[in-house]
Amino acid sequence: MTKNSNMGRQRITMAKIAKKNHLQVTFSKRRTGLFKKASELCTLCGVDVAMIVFSPGKKVYSFGHPRVESIVDRFLTQNPPLRSSTAHQLVEAHRNASIHELNIRLTQLLEQLEIENRRGDALDNIRKAGLNLCWWQAPIDELGLNELERLRIALEELKKNVAKQAKKVLLESADHKRWQFLAVNGIGHANPFENKDNGICRIIDQAYGYGDGLF
User: Fold this and answer.
1) For domain 20-137, which CATH number applies: 3.40.109.10, 3.40.50.2030, 3.30.365.10, 3.40.1810.10?
2) What is the tens place of the pLDDT at every residue in 17-61?
3) What pTM was computed for the model?
4) 3-state secondary structure of 4
């Protein structure tokens, strides 16, 4: 088995990425992280934030709390919007509460996305390690309930196939030795198509643990 050449997490050189596809993937990940940090800042500190990002493909992405337009207007005019009435204040409070809930939900979704990305990376590593590692020896820490259930079913099927093949090999070996004994000792002729003794099958089950049930 070859040694793992992975030296752990390495420091990324801060320079523009040359490959276009790598550039786009990195931009998408960093943009998501940037907006996540801005959302957390709004939730934890109650601040107003506006962010505008232009992608390498000239697409515009923005994040704002409460709204990008209002914050940009305040920045340009240095004049915050007037709250002239109680009704307007209630509307603003309700809107801010809704935005706060949306920011919390966004943070939760981003965390779930990060978990799924880590799980996908773990599965990719398992597939890459498959060249030097049997699939049933792969780490299962990152597998979910569905993946574990499929693995259990696969192990059940593997156990049945191994038991079936072991019985077949031992029966064929017993037949071969029987024919050799009859040929050497000149004892009659046996029917090669007759049913074989099931005692061998029972011996295999007892010797190798191929009984009913895996767990």
Assistant:
1) 3.40.1810.10
2) 888 888 888 888 888 888 899 888 888 888 888 888 888 888 888
3) 0.34
4) coil
